[in-house]
Amino acid sequence: MRFDILTIFPHIFDSYFQESILRIAQEKQKIEIHVHDIRAYTKNKHKKTDDIPYGGGPGMVMMVQPIYDCLKAIPRLEKPRVIMFDPGGSEYTQVHAKHYGEQYDQIILLCGRYEGFDERVYNLVDERISIGKYVLSGGEIPAMIVTETVTRLLPGVLGHIESTHDETFSGSLDYVEHPQYTRPENFTTESEEQWTVPPVLLSGNHAEIEKWRKEHPKQ
Ligand code: SAH
Is residue 170 in some structural domain? Predict the structure, then answer.
């Protein structure tokens, strides 16, 4: 899977993509991530990527030209998908993450800033995606979210240690994973309260454990 991210703040991604699962996925060559600086494609003297809105109103709007040229410069694989981040777009879920990983070999992510994009940028994309009903200052965090959620579902990315089997939203968006416990068996708080692990989990009886897990969803 190849990810191409278009942004005016390319360095935002430097540390995040160099840690943990995304770093390992790149090392194992399961994914490639290319971050493109939209500003490098401006044709005006001051390298401006935004301008005032026609018709008036507050803030600045991202211009179509640098995005058009930046997109044109990105090599296309066989099955690319171009996604624009927009708080008003269709809401991103685990179903999208799975679908993108299965259907495409390249995901091109367009990060907005300011008041968002000139509406004509929409002519260049396949869909508008929102990561939730709140407004961020930019599409960079959404790009990290899509990159990570798609990557961790790709075959061979996660080992046994962090598995996607039977996790929350696997199979259905209503599904929530069972509660988990680890050492110690008994944790004592400052006020001498004892927080214990359900005894069945210590019993070694796998059938009983499975039954308990099914019957005890998270609080
Ligand atoms: N004026 C716009 C908001 C712009 S926020 C409006 O009212 O709809 C600036 C950019 O941040 C957006 O263009 C988008 O790329 C990104 N962004 C902000 N919130 C987002 C969200 N919930 N989901 C996806 N992208 C978001």
Answer: no
